[in-house]
Design the sequence.
């Protein structure tokens, strides 16, 4: 029975990947009318979008945002849409995209750069407004995972929600509340592959606890991966998807052992160090093959900054919610992050 | 992080190929142009206290992308009290976006005209250009409409020249409105058809600042301009070579802060 379940799951995923093809051929002129499902990345001369698995470069203005409805015309060339033209863009007035935009605006109106973008990245996975220099430094130091939406965000949101709901609600109700919260956050933070992975895994683990089954992390990870590939086979080529799974796998296998070996370090940086070291075992070779380099100091840099991330996320999250109603009060709360983001920026500047 | 002091600071921000110049005095800021992208935000962040979200005056010398694009995010993120800008049209889509951002900022919009004087605390700004006769001519190059002004603080004087060319320089010189200054922003990123020897001789600055991008495709700054400055013994500082160029003055002479 067990064998049949796994065999079937693997078989269906494989079938989906093998039969999946980009629906158009090279050189074909196409018109794409779709919703923007990933946040565009902005540079001086272009904005970069991913539409229907194709990479599209558009003029920087008018600006396109996550959630907008766009019509784009261009010529397909491998995985790109070249000489692309934006024919129309309709702003998404939905509650969640609007909420996200207002939160980001609140951060940007309240704090200077790169603090505002760092906070938007940590709390909402918004990387669209990060300056190129700072982005490059984040990449060089190996801490860029902090500002892209990653599983850590989901873990923190879930932890935060569990923390408040278990006080207020009955266990069964609390879990429903947490699940809804996780998926709302997944949509709010851009629905990238790593977020979806963490949201599925989180949901599986919580539900499994509820129906009284012991969850085994590695098995949950594999089921999640296969499910995601069955739903969207194109993810197999998504670097974020691959990194997210390899990093999580490495964490499950190695983190505990490493943590035991580095007992001498102070607790505040031990967690970050062991997390980073464990993840690096799987991730570093992939980064090296893809980008041709990785930073050997990265675990140390991560250990220096990672402890500040949950604090920044929780304070900015609360500040954002308060700030949308009472801007002045929200801003005062947000100022509490300034020493933390200053430390983060200092470390990244120093090593980058 | 910058703490406000009792000195005037002038920072030519390193924004690549374009102009963005910030003047600060205590809690007061004047930003002239915004460069070609959002890099100007880094400059504002670096030289303003983090709690200060208000820029008292923004000047757009003329509506070309390498001068105005960065201002879009400035107007979106900071409260701007006054916007000094000529009534000119730009065909760029991004200029509409800027106009919209200015609208929602509810800034006071003022059109500069020769002879106008703006006082902000102890700082005085005297507009030398555009003149009314220039504004009536519709067909000139956008550069020629650039807002040119003298900034005075105590005995310190600085000349800001936008992207004006030789014809306009001649016209301004003919009116005898160029005074001796300490500091000049070299016109048009040091282009050959920007700086005229006569302009330098009339203003005799101690420091010439060139805002220009590394390896730009225009060949700015031009060798002739650099030679002219050298021959006159004027110190040259370029944003492509040293990043932000910052000076401070207490109203008597000035000091380069990043020599």
Sequence:
């Amino acid at each position: 029975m067990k064998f049949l379940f796994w065999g079937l799951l693997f078989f269906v995923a494989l079938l989906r990947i093998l039969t999946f093809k980009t629906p158009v051929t090279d050189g074909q002129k196409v018109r794409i009318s779709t919703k923007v499902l990933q946040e565009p990345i902005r540079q001086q001369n272009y904005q970069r979008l991913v539409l229907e698995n194709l990479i599209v470069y558009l003029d920087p203005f008018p600006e396109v945002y996550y959630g907008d409805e766009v019509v784009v015309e261009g010529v397909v060339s491998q995985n790109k849409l070249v000489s692309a033209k934006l024919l129309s863009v309709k702003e998404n007035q939905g509650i969640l995209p609007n909420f996200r935009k207002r939160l980001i605006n609140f951060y940007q109106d309240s704090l200077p750069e790169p603090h505002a973008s760092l906070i938007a990245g940590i709390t909402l996975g918004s990387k669209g407004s990060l300056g190129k220099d700072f982005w490059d430094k984040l990449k060089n130091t190996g801490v860029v995972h902090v500002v892209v939406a990653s599983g850590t965000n989901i873990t923190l949101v879930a932890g935060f929600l569990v923390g408040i709901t278990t006080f207020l609600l009955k266990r069964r109700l609390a879990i429903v509340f947490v699940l809804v919260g996780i998926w709302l956050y997944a949509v709010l933070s851009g629905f990238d592959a790593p977020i979806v992975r963490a949201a599925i895994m989180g949901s599986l683990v919580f539900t499994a606890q509820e129906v009284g089954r012991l969850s085994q992390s590695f098995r949950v990870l594999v089921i999640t991966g296969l499910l995601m590939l069955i739903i969207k086979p194109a993810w197999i080529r998504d670097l974020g998807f691959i990194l997210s799974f390899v990093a999580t796998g490495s964490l499950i296998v190695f983190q505990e052992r490493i943590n035991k070996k580095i007992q001498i370090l102070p607790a505040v940086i031990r967690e970050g160090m062991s997390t980073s070291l464990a993840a690096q075992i799987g991730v570093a070779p992939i980064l090296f093959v893809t980008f041709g380099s990785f930073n050997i100091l990265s675990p140390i840099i991560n250990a220096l900054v990672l402890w500040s991330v949950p604090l920044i996320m929780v304070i900015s999250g609360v500040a954002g919610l308060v700030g949308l109603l009472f801007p002045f009060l929200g801003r005062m709360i947000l100022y509490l992050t300034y020493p933390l983001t200053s430390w983060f920026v200092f470390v990244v500047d120093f090593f980058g | 992080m910058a703490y406000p002091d009792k000195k005037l600071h002038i920072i030519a921000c390193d924004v690549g190929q374009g102009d963005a110049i910030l003047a600060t005095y205590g809690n007061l800021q004047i930003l002239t142009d915004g460069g070609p992208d959002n890099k100007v935000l880094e400059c504002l962040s670096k030289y303003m206290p983090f709690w200060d979200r208000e820029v008292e005056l923004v000047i757009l010398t003329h509506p070309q992308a390498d001068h105005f694009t960065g201002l879009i995010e400035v107007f979106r993120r900071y409260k701007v009290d006054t916007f000094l800008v000529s009534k000119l049209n730009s065909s760029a889509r991004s200029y509409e976006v800027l106009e919209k951002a200015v609208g929602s900022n509810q800034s006071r919009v003022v059109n500069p005209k020769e002879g106008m004087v703006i006082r902000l605390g102890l700082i005085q700004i005297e507009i030398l250009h555009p003149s009314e006769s220039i504004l009536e001519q519709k067909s000139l190059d956008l550069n020629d409409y650039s807002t040119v002004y003298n900034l005075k603080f105590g005995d310190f004087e600085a000349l800001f020249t936008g992207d004006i060319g030789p014809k306009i320089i001649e016209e301004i010189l003919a009116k005898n409105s160029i005074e001796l200054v300490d500091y000049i922003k070299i016109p048009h990123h040091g282009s050959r058809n920007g700086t005229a020897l006569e302009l330098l001789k009339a203003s005799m600055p101690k420091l010439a600042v060139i805002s220009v991008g590394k390896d730009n495709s225009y060949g700015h700054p031009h060798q002739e301009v650099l030679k002219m400055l050298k021959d006159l013994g004027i110190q040259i500082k370029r944003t492509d070579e040293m990043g932000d160029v910052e000076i401070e003055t207490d109203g008597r002479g000035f000091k380069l802060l990043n020599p």
User: Anything to note?
Assistant: The mean pLDDT of chain B is 92. Chain B touches chain A at residues 1, 16, 36-39, 41-42, 44-46, 48, 50-51, 53, 69, 76-77, 92-94, 97 (CB under 8 Å).
